[in-house]
Amino acid sequence: MAQSETVDRILDAAEELFAERGFSETSLRMITGRARVNLAAVNYHFGSKKSLIQAVFARFLTPFCLALEQSLDRLEAESSPHPPSLESLLKVLTQTVVAMPRHHDRSIAIYMRLQGLAYTQSQGHLREFLENEYSRTFGRFMGLLKEATPQLSAVERYWRIQFMLGATAFTMSSSEALSDILKNKLGVETAVEEIVARLVPFLTAGMQADPVRG
Amino acid sequence: MAQSETVDRILDAAEELFAERGFSETSLRMITGRARVNLAAVNYHFGSKKSLIQAVFARFLTPFCLALEQSLDRLEAESSPHPPSLESLLKVLTQTVVAMPRHHDRSIAIYMRLQGLAYTQSQGHLREFLENEYSRTFGRFMGLLKEATPQLSAVERYWRIQFMLGATAFTMSSSEALSDILKNKLGVETAVEEIVARLVPFLTAGMQADPVRG
DNA sequence: TCTGGACTCAAACGTATGTTTCAAACAAAT
DNA sequence: ATTTGTTTGAAACATACGTTTGAGTCCAGA
Fold first, then answer.
1. In chain B, what residues touch A198 (CB-CB under 8 Å)?
2. How many CB pairs under 8 A join A and B?
3. Which pTM does this prediction carry?
4. pLDDT tens, A175-190?
5. With left for phi above 0 and alpha for psi between -120 and 50, is residue A36 left, alpha or beta?
6. Of A143, A102, A129, A124, which is closest to residue A12 (Cα–Cα)?
7. How far apart are CA B165 and CA B68, in angstroms?
8. What is the pLDDT of residue A3?
9. CB-neighbour burial class of residue A206 (10 A; exposed 0-12, middle 13-18, buried 19+)
10. Among the four residues A123, A173, A198, B21, which has the most C-beta atoms within 10 Å?
11. Which residues have C-beta within 8 Å of that of residue B185, sequence separation ≥ 6?
C-alpha cells in the first residue's frame, strides 16, 4: 500500500475537494473523476470513504505534529527556566504551519480549511481518529498555553482558547474566499503568511484582556 | 401558507436537526419523522429542501434584524453626536441576540449554531439568500464598526472583523458541546449569556490591539 | 516461460435520498 | 347536501451514493 501513484492522486484530489465542498458533499465519484482513477480504487486502497478522510488528515497532520514537537522542544530550551510566553507560543505554532512543505501554492489554505472542517462538520469518526492519533502533541501545547496565562482562571482560559481556535479555524478555513473578496473591494493581495501575522497580535491581545471576573 | 400546525412542526424539527447534524446530513425523512407529519408535507408547504433551509433561517433572522435595527437606532441616538463605541456596539449586538424570544431553552444555542453552519457548510443558495434578505442590517452594523475603529486601516479592520466573526460563530456553533466538555472537566455549568459576556472583552481587546503596520 | 500477487476496470448491487403522484380526507362556503 | 379549494396520506419515481464483484492487466520472481 506504500507509494502508489494512484494513492497519491486520490489523496490530492480528495484533499482539494473536501476543502472546497466538505466531506458529505463530496462523492467518491467526484474524487476519482478529478484524480482520473477508477472508482473502485478508493475502496481498494483505503477500504472506505471514512478511512480516506482519515488518510487525508494523517498525510499532513503526522509530519506537522512532528515538526511542532521539535519547535516546542527548541522554544522550551531557549526560554528555560521560564515557561515560553504566550506570544512566542502562538508564533511558533503559526510558523510551524507556514513552514510545512507544500505540494503546491494552495496547500496551506487547504490544510487550514480541512482543520476547520474537522471541527465543524459532524463526522464522529474523524473526531475520534484525531483524538486517538494526535492528542499528545495537542495536550502538550495546551499545557504550555496554561503556563503562559497564569492570570486566567481555568474557566476563563478554556473559553478564550475556544475563541482563539474559532478565530483561527474560521478565518483560515475561508482564507481564500476572504482574500478574493478583499482583492475585489480594495485591490489588495493577501498571502496566508500575512493573515497569520495579523492574527497573532489579535489573539494575544484577546487572551490578555482583563477577565470579566476573578 | 400562513400558520399551519404542520408548517410549525416541520420548522421546529428541522431547526433542531439541522443544528445537531448539519444540512446535508439531515434527511427530510428524519425531519418529518420527528415532526410526526407526512414526508410529502415538506415539498407541499416549502417546495424543496433548499427552501425549507431558508425558511428556518428566515423565521429567526427576520425578527432578529428588526430588533437589531431598533437597538442600533437607540444606541445611535444615545451616543449622538459621537458614533457608538466599539464595546457598546458589541454589547448591543449580543444583548439583542440574548433578548430574542425563544421557543424553548435551547433556542439561542440552536440559532447560534445555525448561524455558524451558514458560514461553514457550503450551501451556495443559503449564502445568496442571506445576502439578498439581510444585507442592509448587516451593512449598517459594519458601517458603525468602521466608525468605532478609526485607528485601523481598511485592510486591518477587514481581517479583524473576520477574526471576531470566526471566534463568535465557531464558539457559538459548538457552544453546547463545549459547555458539556467544560462541565465534565471542571464541573462548571455555563449559559449562553455567560459565554457572550466572556466573548465581548476578548473581541474588544483584540480589535484594539496595536496593528502590525501603519 | 510460467506463476502468483498486486492492481485496474466496467459493471452491477443495494440503499437512501429528494421529489412527484394521485386518491382520500377535510373545511368552509354556497 | 353539494361543491370547491386546501391539506394529508401511502406509494412510487428517478437519481445518486458507497460498496462489491469478477474478469482482465501488469510485472517481478522462479
1. 156, 159-160, 212
2. 136
3. 0.86
4. 877 888 889 889 999 8
5. left
6. A102
7. 17
8. 60
9. buried
10. A173
11. A158
